[in-house]
Amino acid sequence: MLQRDLESFKDLPLVPAHVPASAHTRSVPRGQQRPGVSPLGSQRSRQESGGAGANHTLSIAVYDASPDRRRLLAATLYGLGCRTVPLDCESDAPEFLRAQLVASRPDVVIWQIGSAPHDQGAPLLRALGSGTLADIGVVVTTPHLAHATAVLGPSASMVRMLATPFSLGDLMRAVSAAHQDSVGATHG
Hints:
This protein has helices at residues 2-7, 44-48, 67-79, 94-104, 117-130, 145-152, 168-187; strands at residues 59-63, 83-85, 108-112, 137-142, 160-163. By secondary structure, it is an alpha/beta fold. It has a domain at 59-186: Rossmann fold, CATH 3.40.50. Helix 5 (117-130) crosses helix 6. InterPro entries: CheY-like_superfamily (IPR011006), Sig_transdc_resp-reg_receiver (IPR001789).
């Protein structure tokens, strides 16, 4: 199963893995360098020749009421070569969220709506309505896709919806599509 998920990365137009500057210096012994190749690393040569934005590493924030799920997803995204940005999910006040997003400037926010979409959909609706998520791609993950879509109503067209459980390939396709949506909205 995991092998099939990793194989699906070969054709995705994703960002290369981030290699710390210290890995490029001669003072770091070769055996101690952090590997610059991840499952996404095979994309590196194609993307480096792909234009000005090809070397941009996506920065992703995770909004999830469960700290354990939030940390797990952030660690997974980091392992896939994305830059994760911290997001405090203790308050769902739009001004608190906006301050965090302005400070961290993520490209995409992955927003988990759990098993009670009415309760957890309200903060997302407020954030979308207030413009807090303007110019940021949004992926909504939920175990109840139809119900969450109904709760979001017309605002559902502003986000990419992804049913849980999902594969890593599905997640990264949704992240890439949400990022492209936000770039298109900014330039269109």
